Every structure is written in structure tokens, then in C-alpha cells.
Protein 1
Amino acid sequence: MKMFLDKNKPLHTCDEKSCDHCDVKELVYCHFNMKLLFQFIIVAIPCFIIGGIGVSRFNPWLLIPWIVFFVLYFGLIEIRVMCSHCPHYAEPETKTLTCWANYGSPKLWKYRPGPMSLTEKFVFFSGLVIIIMYPSLIMTISEQFILLTVFVLYAMIAVFLMHLFMCRRCMNFACPLNSVPKDVKDKFMSHNSIVCHAWNQSEKQ
Ligand code: SF4
Ligand code: SF4
């Protein structure tokens, strides 16, 4: 089984026969690779390691609910409310995600092109807040203020780096954190009629 989609084959949602000479090829990540996966891991994981150290220094058993929620959120909930709107999710030949974030998460839900609903956005942000606030509160209660400062600073740096290098080129325009410029979105839509149609329909409702 391939670890990533064939970079020479257009997305399932894409109308083109080839990615050669595509005008969004260098602007949107339609395909992922090991380099992009590592880039995401290097940016995201330290934050969770720092948070985990803070929790375990107070009480290692308290790591369990955090890890359980982490797996449920990034393995199931976030996939339903956010990733199921992503063109990458639509690939019929994969049963798990092969992108940079959430690599390996199962695709249990159906592909739902178009924007996220208000409820989905609420669930998406609520999950992120719980994951960040849990170690923050424990570090506050246990007066680990230096570690808490490092945690908060690193979380801010991680968000900044993701915004700079990932969210500006992510094909999931439904994500509230997506920051692909409008002209690039329009170009991508012009190649991906399934996605374009779903967004147009939602605007009419
Ligand atoms: S929009 Fe289509 S043709 Fe262009 S890079 Fe993405 S998958 Fe390939
Ligand atoms: S939204 Fe991001 S994490 Fe989810 S499937 Fe798309 S590229 Fe992967």
C-alpha cells in the first residue's frame, strides 16, 4: 500500500487529466509527501510533549483522559466535522487519511463537500480548546508557571508557523483556519467542479 497519493494523478474531485502545468500546483497542496508530514509533526508535536510533561509532573494518571480525548478528537470527531469536507477525504482508494495532519485517521464518514455548519465549527473549536486548556489548567493548579509559559509560547509559535506554511496552502477551504487567498481558491474551484458546485449550492441556501 502506498503511503501517499500519486503526485502525478489529479485529485478525485479534480476534472483535469494531469497535474502538469496546473496553475494551482505550486499554490495549493493537492498531494502530500513525507517532507510535508514531517514538517507538520515537527511544528505540532512539541506542544503536546510540553503539555504532557506538565500533566505527568502533577499526576501521570491524569495523562490518560487527555490522551483518550486526543485520540477520539483527532481520530474521529475532527475528521467528521472538518476533514470530511476536504477534497483529500474524497479519495476513493484510501480508507485512511494520507495527508500531513491526522495521517492514518480512518475515513468512517462520507465525503461532504462544501462549508462546515455553525455546529461543526463549534465542535471543532471546542475540541481544540479542551485539548489546550486541560494541560494549561493542570500546570496552573500545580504552579508550574515556567513550563506553562513555555507551553503557551510554543503553542503560539506553532499556530503562527502553521498559518504561514500550511493553512495558506491547504485545500480544505471549509476549515475556519484556512487562509488560502481568494484568487487561489477560485482557481482551485475552477479545476474541481464537485467542490465548486457544493459551495455554490450552500451559498444559495
Ligand atoms: S487542482 Fe487538480 S490538476 Fe491542479 S494540482 Fe490539484 S489535483 Fe492537480
Ligand atoms: S483538512 Fe487537513 S487534516 Fe483533514 S483531510 Fe484535509 S488535509 Fe488532511
Protein 2
Amino acid sequence: MKAVYIREHGGREVLTYGDMPDPVIGPNDVKVRVRACAVNRVDIFTRLGVRGTRLGLDQPHILGGDAAGDVVEVGSEVTRIRVRDRVVINPKLTCSQCHYCIAGQHELCISPSMLGSTTNGSYAELVKAPAVNAVRLPDSLSYEYAAALPTVFLPSWNILIRSAQLKSWETALILSASSGVGTAAIQLAKNVVGARVITTTSTDEKARMARELGADEVIVYSREDIEQRVKELTEGRGVNVVLDHVGEGFWPAASRSLAPGGRYGICGVTTGYKADLQMGLMFLRNQTVFGVFMGRKEDLRQIVDLAGKRVIKSVIHRVFPLRDAAKAHEVMESQQSFGKLILRP
Ligand SMILES: [Zn+2]
């Protein structure tokens, strides 16, 4: 099969389009003909070998987590998924045996791994995954829209819906509207919860797109002070929930924007991972700071269902042929995009 793989960590030049052996499935796996896969920030970190993603690389390694396509083979123990099913793959791999997995708390699995980070991924014509990670797609959902869902909607869902339990009468601050996570979180907070949404972005053009997506207020941080604007927009109260996937660069302003009783969820640290935490303010204001990594298997089923009903949708910036994965990485690194970048084998 054709695939995009790396033999060493490094810049975009280490991405190689070429032949790799077809994946061989185990009794509980499915093999999927990939019709679309999404580019995520973690793919770039894995390519570079930074943020804990360094690999031995004694074999070529295929990048990519999110994928949607057609099931072409199922393992001997698989009963729920059939050949020819259209599916999206949840890239968070869990053991299915530890007490957390048995309790359905997959995000706490004691031996997790990630498709494309620790195992061969979806930048390929074929990918294998455990059958329990495949979610069947409604006819209304295209492969491209489906492939763009898991890595951005799962952590957003985990933070906003389950962990912070955002309410319709509350206000959420979603940092960085133009990223995949930003576009997902704005829609969940607005279309699923019905909360008031304040978001941040760098340009007026991106601000316009964020409003189109449902944001009530957009702070253009290149010329506006986030903390000051949040104060004005909330009449000094602050926001009830912050969804932060950018980390260090925005923590000072965002954490000071949190209302008493506020919940601050972190699912990424793209600008850096260290922060000064004002512990005194935290207990005086009864605030919670928490992290999430992806979500539960059942979350993706609910996300797919809502996407099929068009309550939420993937925001796709551009679709590239698989062989142009390096160009897609370049666009993501340039931070000029609004929404997801998709590769099509
Ligand atoms: Zn487990």
C-alpha cells in the first residue's frame, strides 16, 4: 500500500510517500481502506520527535491518527463491525482490560497508546485498529467530515460536556477559534449546550469566521487585551468555563478571566506547558483546573450522531492528496488556516 512514513525525526523533508506493507490484523481488529485522514498537531510533534513523542524508529513509522473509510477485513472475534461498513476510527487506543476500561473510563486506561504516535497510523491507504475503536457512519456524513472529528471533538466534548458540565446559562471562553479544537468547542458550547461563547483569534477575518460558527463575542488578541475584554463582556464576573488547548502563552490572561466557581479545562499546550498557578485565588474563588486527554469511546458515538444530524460539523480548511502531506504540515505550521486539513489517499 501507499503511505506517508518517517525513517527519522525532523522537518517536513522526512515525510516520505512510498510503499509500505499492508497492515496485518489480529482477531479483534478491523482493517479499513482509508478514504480521508485528518492532520493534527500531534502528527507534527511526532514527526519532530518532541513533547514525549520520540520513537526508536528501527522501522519506518506511518503518521496519522484520525481516519475514516471502508472496512475491508474484520478479525475472527469481531461481530459488531462488518466488511463494507463506513467507519471513523477513534485513534485513542486502550487495553479494554484494566478496571478503568471495564468501567468505561477509557481516558484513564493504564496502558493507552495512540494511532500514529506509538503504532503505525492513518496516513496510508489501509490502517488497522481495534474494532471497538470503529464507529459506524450515517450516510449523511462524508469521509472527510468524519475523519476531522475525533481528535478535536473528543477532548472538547470531555471538557465542556462531561467534566466542566457547562450549562446553557453560563459563559465559556474558548481559546484560539481557528484551530480544529477551537472550531469544535465553539459548536459544542453553542449548538449542543446553548451557552454564551467568547473566543479569541488573531485576525479580523478569522474573527468573522468564528462568529459564523456561533461565537457570540470574539477577542482579536493581536490588538485587544483578553483579560480586559472578558471583564467588559461579562460585567466583571468572568467566564464560568475556559477551554484551553494552547497553554503557556494564554494562561495568565485566561486563568485571570475565570469566574468564582469556574472550571478551567486543558487539552493541549501548543504554545508551551509551564504556568504560574495562583493557588490563593484558586481556593478563595472555588475554582477547578483540570486536564483531559481525548475522551471515551462512547463520546465519539455521540459526536458522530450529532454530526450526522448536522448539529455540529467539521470545519475543513483544505483537502490535500496523501502524497502532499508535507504541504499540509506546512499550512498547519504557518497558522494561516481556519479549521482542519484533510489528506485523501
Ligand atoms: Zn485500559
